[in-house]
Amino acid sequence: DTGVSQDPRHKITKRGQNVTFRCDPISEHNRLYWYRQTLGQGPEFLTYFQNEAQLEKSRLLSDRFSAERPKGSFSTLEIQRTEQGDSAMYLCASSLGDRPQETQYFGPGTRLLVL
Amino acid sequence: KNQVEQSPQSLIILEGKNCTLQCNYTVSPFSNLRWYKQDTGRGPVSLTIMTFSENTKSNGRYTATLDADTKQSSLHITASQLSDSASYICVVSTSGGSYIPTFGRGTSLIVHP
Q1: Residue B56, beta-bridge partner list
Q2: A contact residues 71-110, partner B, Cβ 8 Å cutoff
Q3: Do B43 and A100 count as a contact with CB atoms less than 8 A apart?
Q4: Which residue from A13, A66, B77, B104 puts its CA 20 to 30 A from A89's CA?
Q5: Count of A-B CB contacts under 8 Å
Q6: Residues of chain A below pLDDT 70
Q7: Residue B29 touches chain A, beta carbons under 8 Å
């Protein structure tokens, strides 16, 4: 296993279109996290899963954002009716355990540009 | 409101020199503080993690300190190398309840030859 992978690495879309990003965590990692990072800022927490259960989603930016992890393995993040303000890097991370001090391993991110 | 403030925003140093980055936080209840290194276009990589009872943690040329009373942390880089050029992000996590980490904006470090 080579780490957390994300697909696609880059996405250009037109305003109003829907986009979906995929994250494959490290095998056997039961926690999976999604973050958004804009230029010059630190990552901003969006949501996380413990296996297939979404334990926190209050930080999703709007009801246009949704995430799933149906089988407790890979996860998808969908943005509906994209807006120019959604342009950012979307990062995924995974960790093995459920303690706050567990190390999160980040993927390379998906860079989204909304025209 | 939980906040993490980092300083300086950016820093330029010569190769071989030392530097110290600062992190102040107002996060409660505190669980742990972590420093990440993020290379341009890549995801962050964890450098150190400290819990409430830990004052110092080292990882090679990186040494982090934590003062839980004043809610301050620092990251000291010794004998800097060109590959240290990156953004360094301080992250504080809460204990109990739902997991929501608070990230700082990061310090952008440039090491010149």
Answers
A1: B65
A2: 91, 93, 100-101, 103-109
A3: no
A4: B77
A5: 54
A6: 1, 100
A7: no
